[in-house]
Amino acid sequence: MSEPILTLTDAVVAFDALRAVDGVSLTVPRGQRRAIIGPNGAGKTTLFNAIAGMVPPSSGRIMFDGHDITKLPPHRRAQLGISRTFQITNLFPTLSVQDNMVLALRGLSPRKFSLFGRPDTDSVEAPRIAAALGAARIAKRADVTVKELSYGEQRQLEIALSLVTTPTMLLLDEPAAGLSPSERSMVAEIIRSLDRDITVVLIEHDMDLALGLVDFVTCMFEGRILVEEAPEGIRRNHKVQEVYLGKPRHA
Ligand SMILES: Nc1ncnc2c1ncn2[C@@H]1O[C@H](COP(=O)(O)OP(=O)(O)OP(=O)(O)O)[C@@H](O)[C@H]1O
Ligand SMILES: [Mg+2]
What superfamily in CATH does domain 1-81+169-251 come from? Predict the structure, then answer.
């Protein structure tokens, strides 16, 4: 196994009495594709929030690429190479695809952006934006206003936004949620084609999609790791079957 890029040691995220992440220790080797699965409310998104810095862990330690990031704010973690997408779309609908990319790359809000007008991208920004749009298969739509995009294209744009800062680790929170089968295949193809220099951690409810993309699977349940296994074994794992089939998913 290659050197880990991400290591969580006994990470806990508590919301009052609820331990949404309840003592998670996990290691992701550099370059790996990892799926995080588990029923609704298992703590998957909260785990991403703890890694990306949106919610500080109540206890435990998070190491990323040789740095102790446990207490760092999100922008510092982003500078170190962590990028994420959100379960719910998070775009500026009245701006073009290209302008959304510029904002993400410069870390600006739309308000600041309109203050500065629309300066041209420079020789560093332009190729980065083009590469990220290309990787997310949405380069042809660069000049289209976001609200004109299909929902599938909006999810592709989110992947492009997460790539534009040239991350070393990408956290994808249900990138195919709500998509049609053909749009799902497109997202799968995008993820499959990502540079192997990028470590990818993927939350996904669609088992067929997730298991076809990853090297290793972590199944969470009630804030804890229930099972870690290669994709071939995960479907047959009785504990996994029990949490998916034995209890109804909440709405
Ligand atoms: N900011 C918050 N404040 C209070 N409780 C929260 C907060 N965020 C999440 N929770 C709770 O923590 C638990 C884990 O939620 P989380 O969103 O991490 O689950 P998930 O595995 O991503 O579920 P889903 O598959 O539905 O997206 C849930 O019980 C949720 O209600
Ligand atoms: Mg979630």
Answer: P-loop containing nucleotide triphosphate hydrolases (3.40.50.300)
